[in-house]
Design brief:
Largest interface: A-B, 15 and 16 residues
Strand order of the largest sheet of chain B: 14-13-24-23-22-15-16
Number of helices of chain A: 7
Number of strands of chain A: 5
Largest sheet of chain A: 5 strands, mixed
Number of strands of chain B: 26
CATH topology of the largest domain in chain A: Glutaredoxin
CATH class of the largest domain in chain A: Alpha Beta
Oligomer: heterodimer
Largest sheet of chain B: 7 strands, mixed
Shape of chain A: globular
Structural class of chain B: alpha/beta
Radius of gyration of chain A: 20 Å
Strand order of the largest sheet of chain A: 2-1-3-4-5
Number of helices of chain B: 22
Distance between the termini of chain B: 50 Å
Strand content of chain A: 5-15%
Shape of chain B: globular
Chain lengths: 202, 680
């Protein structure tokens, strides 16, 4: 992890669309008068969602004005947290977990698949500028390791083939079904086991 | 009161102090980087760790409130080890470039690592490298040296009121920067150079100029504005290398404006170093006796009513005094003036031209009304106080004009003088605000006193305040921001000739009634020369010297001892740090010698006689003034007019700044920023 570089190519303007504006106002209204600055993180996230998963500088300025706080304070927050992207990451943003449990269960196979399908390097846009991937730290789904996150959805219990298939679908514009790819619901035990009673050495 | 122990010695302190402050009171020194008295507490450098009994871990003393019965230890092995550890971490990424660092010799990190650090490092890894930042023409950055104390950020946000500095990234990648690396838009920006405990932010104009131990340090007074900031002038031989602030809680606290600090390179350029005489439109060098004889013959042949003297903005009071004596006694003329434009002056009572609430009083004020003033440029330090008052008490501030960003929020009226009429006739909501306020502060700026309705504005508001008991011995809400360092001194010494507050000498001068004009460091006159014979005495070749027929080279404020009265009426002495160049002489001496040539008698035998005579004069004047009663001026004329704020060129306001390259850079940086439109 190093200091996040701000993209050289920046859009000229940014404004919240009506959905984002509603969401932003709702969040700001949760804070007492004069303390709206507390909403900065949520607003940055809203801006990121609206703008294909990354935050341009104009958006930071816009939020600074929206919350009546200095730009530099918004900039500080945006550069501090790793989950704000300051360079374009594509409409489909793939995050592969490579922290220990996933790594042991073969996360690097997923990385190989990403390299093959999306781009050779991490944080690099695919040829059609629609997609990029990066390695991230634990996403909290260790029971379903290895896994990856694409935008808002978790794709779990993967291997290289399944990943390739998912990425193919994503790149062709479809939205594959999120969740476990070994046929279980959430993190339930496999083979329909409900208790540990019937396993001797459990 | 709290009772606690520091190193087993009992001390008693008031409540609300931190452990670090308690230790300081007990005379125990605690090393620190991020803690600064005038800024909020950050607690992030960890250098101030101390041991507190019953606490298993060392405690950051700057952020820990002192409580009853605490037993603080600062000299144990435990503390020593903690300090060594912190020091080692701080130095892990700090480059060992002290020999080429401008902070060397006055560096907190250097000093404290000598006292509290270890002599070697266990850190074998590569040090981090941080790119340099652009922070404008005054601040040089070397961010690899930064230890992230965040003092500069806190100063910019809290004191200067320009939240433009911030820390981006995190952990090892944290960097201090301005937003998108623009220069800081503050007139106090260079104070971060003093605040920086390491060599990360250093002074750009002073880069590689000198080492602190080579410099002669003179504690003196600043003359760039009427505040009279306390400064220390560092000289190397003749050259003034830099100007630093001195602490004076009543005036400038710890800060000085950029102009005060960086105009000093103007003392080296454009200097008048020898007397000149103009022959056929060209200046030629001359000797002192030549010019004195010419002046003598000119004065002898002239009608004394056709001689006038106008003093300038940076002249000390000794010179003003002897200048007046010279005119009154030697020449027998009373055409003497210290104002350079048609500023309204009611010299009846001293309070009519002073900042009566005092700079400290601003913090007590509960309502502030600005009339025709932009304090940010007219008196930067005073503006910082208003901001401090706002930050502390959320003081309500109203300005008659919208004057742009003042670093604090204020509401503004449209600038119409009719508002003043409504206020004094009790028809405006502000009238009630003033009446209800216990300690209101009405500040008149130069633009108000220079306007056509200046007399109406000033006198009607004054009598309104008096009527409502806002001018009393306890609290005098009448405040004037004087224009220059010598303004108040000139008025105190009676260097004015006025009819109903007007500037009579200037009026006559503009009507070309004078034959001989003696300009004493006066470079701001807007008048077209016709047949006048002009004598200019001053330090710099500027507007005044340009139109002169004879030039007498004088000394700048760092080159002679001299008194200055600041806008509150406090008399302060500026000391000689350097000496006048070449043939130039101290200003009082020139006039004294000229008097000797004229009359074969010196006005004063020596400087001491002049000084004591001056002090007597001032004391008598103040005594006489105090016994005067309030006088009201009736029958005031109201003129309908929009008050305009005269945006004086902040970086080019006097001869020294106009000769300064650094000030030119500052001005350029500011205009460039405006033209690119990156203001938001």
């Amino acid at each position: 992890m190093s200091l996040k570089k701000v993209s050289k190519e920046q859009p000229k303007s940014f404004e919240f669309n009506s959905n984002s504006l509603d969401a932003a106002k709702k969040i700001v209204s949760k804070y007492p008068e004069g303390k709206q600055q507390s909403a900065v993180m949520a607003l940055l996230y809203i801006a990121q969602r609206q703008n294909d998963n990354w935050i341009p500088l104009v958006a930071m300025k816009y939020i600074g004005k929206f919350l009546e706080m200095p730009y530099i304070k918004v900039y500080e927050v945006a550069t501090f947290y790793t989950m704000y992207n300051l360079t374009p990451v594509g409409k489909h943003f793939v995050q592969v977990c490579t922290t220990t449990p996933c790594m042991i269960r073969g996360a690097y196979k997923l990385v190989e698949a990403c390299k093959k399908k999306i781009s050779e390097k991490e944080n690099e846009l695919s040829k059609d500028k629609n997609c990029s991937w990066m390695e991230v730290e634990c996403l909290g789904a260790c029971v379903n390791a290895p896994m990856m996150q694409i935008n808002d959805d978790y794709y779990e219990d993967l291997d290289k083939e399944k990943t390739l298939k998912i990425l193919d679908e994503i790149l062709s514009g479809k939205t594959p079904k999120p969740g476990s790819y070994r046929g279980r619901l959430n993190a339930e035990p496999e083979n329909n086991r409900k208790t540990l009673m019937d396993i001797k050495n459990a | 009161m709290l009772k606690l122990k520091v190193n087993n010695i009992e001390v008693e302190v008031e409540e609300g102090l931190t452990v670090l402050q308690v230790c300081e009171k007990a005379g125990v020194e605690i090393p620190r980087f991020c803690y600064h008295e005038k800024l909020s507490i950050a607690g992030n450098c960890r250098m101030c760790l101390v041991e507190i009994e019953k606490s298993p871990k060392p405690v950051a003393s700057c952020a820990m409130p002192a409580i009853e019965g605490m037993n603080i230890k600062t000299n144990t092995e435990f503390v020593e080890k903690a300090r060594k550890g912190v020091m080692e971490f701080l130095l892990a990424n700090h480059p060992l470039d002290c020999p080429v660092c401008d902070q060397g010799g006055e560096c907190d990190l250097q000093d404290q690592s000598m006292f509290y650090g270890v002599d070697k490092s266990r850190y074998k890894e590569n040090k981090r490298e941080v790119p340099e930042k652009n922070m404008g023409p005054l601040i040089k950055t070397q961010m690899t040296r930064c230890i992230h104390c965040t003092r500069c950020i806190r100063f910019a946000t809290e004191v200067a009121g320009v939240p433009e500095l911030g820390a981006i990234g995190r952990g090892e990648d944290m960097q201090i920067t301005t937003y998108l690396e623009q220069s800081m838009q503050s007139e106090l920006s260079a104070n971060v150079v003093d605040l920086c405990p390491v060599g990360a932010l250093t002074s750009k104009p002073y880069v590689f100029e000198a080492r602190p131990w080579e410099l002669k340090k003179t504690e003196t007074i600043d003359v760039m504005d009427a505040i009279g900031s306390n400064i220390r002038v560092d000289t190397y031989g003749w050259e003034v290398k830099r100007v630093l602030p001195r602490i004076n809680e009543d005036i400038n606290e710890e800060w000085i404006s950029d102009k005060t600090r960086y105009a000093c390179d103007g003392l080296l350029n454009q200097r008048l170093d020898t007397p000149y005489i103009k022959y056929n439109g060209k200046f030629e060098k001359a000797s002192w006796s030549e010019v004195f004889n010419i002046i003598k013959s000119k004065f002898k042949n002239a009608d004394k009513e056709k001689i006038c003297g106008i003093s300038g903005d940076l002249v000390n009071m000794e010179t003003l005094y002897i200048f007046k004596e010279f005119f009154n006694k030697t020449l027998g003329s009373h055409n003497i003036e210290s104002r350079s434009d048609h500023t309204y002056l009611n010299p009846d009572k001293r309070e009519n031209y002073l900042f009566n609430s005092a700079i400290n009083g601003i913090e007590e004020a509960d309502f502030i009304l600005l009339i025709g003033s932009n304090p940010r440029y007219e008196a930067t330090i005073l503006n910082a106080r208003i901001r401090k008052s706002y930050m502390k008490n959320k003081t309500k501030i109203i300005s008659l004009n919208d004057v742009g960003d003042l670093t604090y929020p204020y509401s503004s009226l449209n600038g119409d003088i009719e508002n003043i009429k409504n206020i004094v006739e009790d028809k405006h909501e502000i009238s009630n605000l003033i009446k209800e306020a216990k300690k209101p502060l009405i500040i008149f700026g130069q633009s108000a006193l220079k306007s056509n309705s200046s007399k109406y504005i000033f006198e009607s508001v004054k009598s309104f305040l008096h009527k409502n008991n806002k001018i009393s011995n306890e609290w005098n809400s009448l405040n004037v921001i004087s224009e220059n360092a010598s303004t108040v001194g000139g008025f105190d010494l009676g260097l004015y000739k006025t009819e109903n507050g007007s500037n009579k000498v200037l009026k006559d001068l503009e009507n070309h009634k004078f034959e001989i004009v003696y300009l004493l460091g006066q470079d701001s006159l807007k008048f077209k020369k016709q047949n006048e014979f002009i004598i200019y005495q001053g330090s710099h070749g500027d507007k005044g010297a340009e139109m002169a027929d004879i030039i007498l080279p004088g000394a700048a404020y760092t080159e002679q001892n001299g008194y200055f009265t600041n806008l509150e009426g406090i008399l302060q002495k500026a000391y000689k740090a350097s000496y006048p160049p070449e043939e130039a002489k101290e200003d009082w001496l020139i006039i004294n010698e000229l008097a000797e040539v004229m009359n074969h008698r010196k006005l004063f035998n020596d400087k001491d006689e002049l000084d004591s005579s001056l002090i007597n004069q001032i004391n008598l004047y103040i005594e006489k003034n105090n016994s005067k009663e309030f006088s009201d001026i009736k029958n005031l004329n109201f003129e309908k007019e929009l008050l305009k704020i005269d945006n004086e060129d902040y970086y080019f306001s006097n001869v020294i700044t106009r000769a300064s390259k650094t000030m030119f850079e500052c001005k350029k940086a500011k205009t460039n920023l405006k033209s690119t439109g990156t203001d938001g």
